[in-house]
Amino acid sequence: MLIVPFVLEVAIAVGLTGYLSFRNGQQAVNQLANRLMGEFSTHIAQRLDSYLDSAKRENEKNATALKIGGLNPNNLHQLGVFFWSQTQTHRFSYVNFQHVSGGSIGAGYAKGVWHIGEQSKPGAGGTDIYSVDPWGEQTYLFNLPENENPRLKEWFVAASRARQQVWTPIWISDDRPAAANIAVSTPIFDRTNRLVGVTSVALSLREIHQFLSSIRASKNATVFIVERSGLLVASSNEQPIYRTVNGTLQRLHSSDRWNSLMAAATDHLQEKFGGLEAIQTSHQLSFVRDDERQFIQVTPYRDELGLDWLVVVAVPESDFIGEIYNNTHTTIFLCAIALAGAIVLGFVTSHWIAEPILRLSDASRDLALGKLDAPVKEASLIAELDVLAHSFNQMTEHLQQSFDEVTVALQESEEKFTKVFRTSPDPIAISTLEGKFLEVNDSFVNVFGYPREEVVGRTAQEVGLWANIEDREKLAQALKQDGVMCNLEYNFYSSSGELLTLLFSSEIIELNGKACMLGVAKDITGRKQAEEALRQSEQRFRGALGHQCIGYCNYFPGRKNFAGKPFSL
Known about the structure:
Blueprint: H1 3-68, H2 76-90, E1 94-99, E2 104-110, E3 113-119, E4 127-132, E5 138-144, H3 154-162, E6 166-167, E7 171-172, E8 180-189, E9 195-204, H4 206-214, E10 222-227, E11 232-235, E12 242-245, E13 248-251, H5 260-273, E14 283-289, E15 292-302, E16 308-316, H6 317-368, H7 383-423, E17 428-432, E18 437-440, H8 442-448, H9 452-455, H10 460-463, H11 469-482, E19 484-493, E20 499-511, E21 514-523, H12 525-555
Antiparallel strand pairs: 1-2, 1-9, 2-3, 3-4, 4-5, 6-8, 7-8, 8-9, 10-11, 10-16, 12-13, 14-15, 15-16, 17-18, 17-21, 19-20, 20-21
Helix pairs in contact: 1-6, 6-7
């Protein structure tokens, strides 16, 4: 009764505290994950803006300079050096200008070297490749044979058709190592709105790939950028976003199983929205993969040139909640220590409290058994129990005194009862309710004439006292109902066979814990005989007096009240 509530209270309090701490930790993890993913998505969008805007801005500057004459489209050497300086400053993968007549100039990284590629016009012997030193001096390296019409390149065709600045589709270069690239192209028109040429700036998506790898949200997080078609733009994983199929480089799809978390996130988004094309605003979602919760932040990324990508951040819950699990294990360990301490403290406290209570309990049992000579030890550290023990000892002393007084009074009462019982002039008997005599007095022996030893231990029927034994049974039934019967006249036989008439009174008493019958009788046999003699004498007197009255009535015939009828006194 002392240990269990104490330990249970501690266990519930500690367990509830640990559970609430864990739940609060989970909620904090959810909020932290959502906030971090939102911040990462914003950071990625800002980096994309900075990286892509530099290409759009520089390409727009080149187009304006070529249009207004700041750069001479016919001076390919000048353009080559200028483009090369742009690639070094902004780390563009390539800067191009393609004249509508077929001549072209470009600078950037290709075929494993930073170079300037110049082609005066189609059919003029291919493209001459020059290396450039830090001061812009060119050194001829080699000639690339012409294998295609530069005018058919995608960046040229896209800008010519759109007649405005546009992004080209992503392509995979055949450099070593290969890389995914995207270019922004701007058409240049003369005063008659006739196409003069197209300038473009190409960006390597490897830069975005490295950036995503450097800002990974957590240990096992995956960050990737995907087109609406599902083709990867860049990811935070070490694997490239392309693969070789039959000797051809092909881009990977985000739902390909080479990265399980990326594929699972893509599948969940497609299932949730019915396709990546339907995602128009930022969303924070979660799903379960391999019995583990995963958080997703998907944010559309668009620009004014028609670029439309999705930035996805996928983070396993375990990356955030692992520390909480460790803290939970520590909490459980501390709870176990606290529980063990509570049990030990509960045993000590309960023993400290229960020991004086047990002494009081033993003293109460002894008191119930009549042992009043064993006082309770009052030296207790608990003030209330010390007071209770002192009060118990005082009560024991008072009970002992009362018991002694009652014993003396009982002895005196027994002596008085015995004296009255023995010296009473009326017969007194004590018997069981079944009629067995337990004790009789001397008057009983004198009136009925039976020796005491012939009566005690035998029933009234066995002794033969009652003239009518049914009167004895009726008396017993009446006593059981009423408890007391007074002055009832019954007939008994003495030992000599003489019929005795007695006034009998009886009451149920308790003797040694058993209901008994106390009977007191008064012998009225002589009085009954005298009353019978008086009755007979009265009858004789009435008869004689009746004859005289009849004669009187005959002597006074005129009396109507008598009418000659006899009467008696």
